[in-house]
Amino acid sequence: MSAHTQNAQNTSKSSVTVIGLGPMGRALASAFLAAGVATTVWNRTPGRDRELVARGAADAATPEEAVAASDLTVVCVVDYAAADSILQRPEVTAALKGRTVANLSADTPDRAREAATWAAEHGVRYLDGAIMTPTTTIGTPHGVFLYSGSRELYGEHKPVLDALSGTHSHLGEEIGRAAAFDLALLDIWWTSMTGYMHALAIARAEGITAQELAPFAKGIGAILPPSFDEAAAEVDNGTYAATVNPLTSAASTMAHIVHVSEAHGIDASLMRAAEGLARRAIGLGHGGDELHRLAELMGRNG
Ligand code: NDP
Fold it and tell me: Given ligand 1 and candidates 24, 140, 142, which is best to mutate, with the most ligand atoms within 8 Å of its CB?
């Protein structure tokens, strides 16, 4: 049997339902279709499935019809309130009994735990998940997917989920873990990118174009990965001994950024918050430590 025939036979056995056809839901459904997975779709607002249906997706008239079409339903809507408003309709819940939901919508770990409790109470098998990369990566090796929940259940549906290509990581049986990883990682993304926007505002006020700054900004980005490893080791060990760039020096640089912002009438609230944290740590006697000390300080609630 050729590899091609083998593949066709495997994928013909697999099917999936995708609920939610925003940009991400459409990307997921599109990748499933491209991989040869029989795909049924449903979205609250009709019409978003036109292109998918033209490519062979089955369009369900109702969400209960959609979930009844496959053993696995992937949900990808704006948040868990939206997911609940679909899945917790009595007719949908009834149709889901004994089937699996993999909720890839973003929300908090507690919302994931509540969803899992609801699922257990209604005989719905439940996996939680998060997508860490943009729509353009879905169906390519660059997609990153996180999952939590029963390892056995994940293993059962892995062949279909893997059809999305990319890297798939099961992070543990505790259902909130995927959402917790998601939010911690998005914290890095949003604070970093907001910092970059602030940097561009300063650069522009000083007559530097964003494109002039970009190559140097990438240099700063390249320093981050090893810094993440160094910080991780110190924060996990609770030891902050190695001091290459002490907080006293960091706070002084932060103050310069606040001053140049204020001189140009640029909102400095982001850097003022960072400087405030650094000064608080210094006040507590940690001025000789690296910035890593702030992870402990912020976790202390005051
Ligand atoms: P949105 O986050 O805007 O979600 C749009 C989807 O949610 C649509 O299907 C929309 O339906 C549905 N929806 C919104 N409110 C409700 C409601 N009250 N009841 C039912 N359905 C509702 O766009 P995305 O598709 O981009 O994102 C989906 C999820 O994927 C989000 O959790 C997002 O954080 C996550 N994600 C997205 C990424 C991206 O690059 N876009 C990257 C990584 C994760 P309707 O069409 O009817 O409005």
Answer: 24
What is the spatial distance between Cα 222 and Cα 225, in angstroms, rounded to a whole number? 7
The answer to whether 71 touches 13, Cβ cutoff 8 Å, is no
DSSP designation for 99? S
Q: Name the token pair of 92.
A: 């949908």
Could you tell me which of 42, 77, 49 has the C-alpha nearest to residue 63? 42
- Ligand 1 centroid – CA 54 distance (Å): 22
CATH of segment(s) 209-298: 1.10.1040.10
The residue to which tokens 């990682």 are assigned: 185
- 43 CB under 6 A from ligand 1? yes
> Domain ranges in the chain?
3-174, 209-298
Q: What is the pLDDT of residues 216-253, one digit of tens each?
A: 999 999 999 999 999 999 899 888 875 788 999 999 99
Ligand 1 neighbourhood includes 22 CB (under 6 angstroms): yes
Residue 74 in contact with ligand 1 by CB distance below 6 A: no
Taking only the tens place, the pLDDT of each residue in 184-215 is 999 999 999 999 999 999 999 999 999 999 99
Take atom 5 of ligand 1 and give the residue whose Cα is closest. Answer: 22
Options 3.40.50.720, 1.10.645.10, 3.10.290.10, 3.30.360.10; which CATH number does 3-174 get? 3.40.50.720
Cβ of 88 less than 6 Å from ligand 1: no
